[in-house]
Structures are given as structure tokens and as C-alpha cells.
Amino acid sequence: MNPNPNIIYPRTGDTQTVYLKSVITKPTIEVGDFTIYNDFVNDPRDFEKNNVLYHYPINHDRLIIGKFCSIACGAKFIFNCANHTLNSLSTYTFPLFFEEWDLPKLEVATAWDNKGDIVIGNDVWIGYDAVIMWKTQARMPPAAKVCLTPKNFSVDPLRSFGRRGHFYFGLLTFCSLYF
Q1: Environment class of residue 87 by beta-carbon count within 10 Å: exposed (0-12), middle (13-18) or buried (19+)?
Q2: Which one of the listed residues 55, 60, 84, 166 is annotated catalytic?
């Protein structure tokens, strides 16, 4: 038996689960073999449109997801462009309206604080309605954090779960990766 990571639907008759790599079209999103995404609300083939948010080409940031990951319905990846800059007199996004304010177009990316790529390792399980984004505050330790609600429980899976680096989200409603 030779499983094929390049097909869209890994199970006959199941159109809610896809091999994510087979439905990705943007070069700034990389997905490893056999990573699955399940969506029982929307068409899972629309992952880029519905689940990867504020991922504008001008920022050149990437979403990298490893092999054998399981991503549940509603998981969202929110990129840097959603974060308004805190390094200015105003959090307003003046550079985005460069034409109106007569600003250089090259300064558009200064409207937000660029935190870099979002990288998910191999064999990671991301639970229902999880939100993965960069932390907007400075001075955070270089470790991944998982925040669970309603108890606001926080764990550091890189230290808690050992070498494999599993992120067990369970009933996760908010997750923020700090690097």
C-alpha cells in the first residue's frame, strides 16, 4: 500500500476532510505531506480564504505547516498585518492609505509590527476554532504558549511535552505562538 499525499480527499465519500497540501495555491503557504484539515461548516478547499487571515503579499511572511498535522474546523491563522503598530504616535494605519496621505508606498508595511512567519512543526494537532497568531507584546520568552479559556490556563508545550513538541489543544479557543 502506497498512500498518496497529493490527492484532495483521503477518504472515499468524505468531502469534509482534505489533505491540505493539495488545496493550497499560494506560494507563501507551505504544507507537509498527509496534513489534514476538516471543516464541517465551509468547504475545506477554501482553507486559504477562510482560515489564513491578514496574510498580505506585501509583508512576505509565510505559513509553514509540517507533516502529519491534524487541523480541526474553524482553526484560524492570523498574520502580522492584523496587528497595528505600537511603535508610532498613533495605532492608526496611515501607511495603508499612502495615496490619501501622500506617503511613500514603500512604507505600507510600517503600519503593523512584523513578527515574521508562523511555523507549525510535524505531528501537531490544532483543535476546533483555535486561533494562532503572533504575540503583539515585546519581551516574551522564545517558547510556544497555549491559552485555554474560560480558565485562562496556560502551558508551554515545548517544555511540557518533551522532544516531539506536541501541542494538545483539546477545547482550545485561543492559541498564540510566541517566538
Answers
A1: exposed
A2: 84
Residues 6 or more apart whose CB falls under 8 angstroms from that of 92 comprise 84
**Bridge partner residues of 58 (DSSP):** none
Q: What pTM did the predictor assign?
A: 0.70
Residue 84 known to be catalytic: yes
Backbone CA torsion sign across 87, 91, 93, 94: negative
- Flag whether pLDDT at 137 surpasses 60: no
> Contact, 65 vs 19, CB < 8 A?
no
Q: What beta strand segments (E) does 79-130 contain? A: 118-120, 125-126
Q: How far is CA 18 from the centre of its chain?
A: 17
pLDDT tens sequence across 145-164: 444 333 333 334 443 333 33
Q: For all residues of the chain together, what is the average pLDDT?
A: 75
Using the CB atoms, write b or e for 137-159: b if 16+ within 10 Å: eeeeeeebbbebeeeeeeeebbe
Separation of alpha carbons 52 and 126, rounded Å: 14
